[in-house]
Design goal:
By secondary structure, the chain is mainly beta. Helix content is 13%, strand content 46%. Strands 1-10-4-7 form a 4-stranded antiparallel sheet, with no helix packed on it. The chain has a 4-stranded antiparallel sheet with strand order 3-8-5-6, with no helix packed on it. It has a two-stranded antiparallel ribbon with strand order 2-9. A hairpin with a 5-residue loop joins β5 and β6. The radius of gyration is 19 Å and the shape is globular. The termini are far apart.
């Protein structure tokens, strides 16, 4: 009886590991950087360097934001800079909703931390081999605030995720 229970537990463990690994087969890059003291200063970029060898595949790029209950805005403004291996740059100003119209946090999570997976670039081909550099700055402001909110409180981690488009 003990041997059968042990075998079932082992099979369950291996099946769980297999499922977790197989679900992420399209992930090219996935990394988070913590925000010190959960206070993101506008002049501090969050930098990710992604080495690319695949110049054919379509990819979706996401910015992942983890926030806690100390985040005081219903949206977040970001400035992103993507630098290609040849030195060319693409700079975007982005706005993402962080709450619904009733003030409830969007994103996933059962604790005080909510995680938002935000579309940044869709169906992108990284046509050059080499290192791509992604810099993400926060540019969140109150309605009458010219200088911006610095530090921006309540952001715990910022991440970058790249997934191959599976058709």
């Amino acid at each position: 009886m003990k041997i059968t229970t042990k075998i079932i537990k082992n099979i369950s463990l291996y099946a769980s590991i297999f499922l977790v690994l197989s679900c992420n087969s399209n992930v090219v890059y996935d990394k988070y950087k913590p925000i010190e003291s959960h206070q993101w200063h506008s002049e501090n970029s969050i930098r990710f360097i992604v080495s690319n060898k695949d110049t054919i595949s379509l990819n979706n790029v996401f910015i992942n934001i983890r926030n806690n209950k100390n985040y005081e805005f219903s949206s977040i403004f970001l400035i992103t800079k993507m630098e290609f291996p040849n030195g060319n740059q693409v700079i975007d100003t982005l706005e993402y909703e962080m709450t619904d119209s009733f003030g409830n946090w969007l994103g996933q999570g059962f604790t005080d931390i909510k995680e938002n997976k935000l579309f940044y670039k869709e169906n992108v081909v990284f046509s050059e081999k080499g290192d791509y550099t992604f810099d993400i700055y926060q540019a969140t402001r109150s309605s009458n605030d010219i200088e911006g909110k610095t530090p921006l409180k309540g952001i715990t981690d910022v991440g970058l995720r790249i997934e191959k488009v599976i058709k």
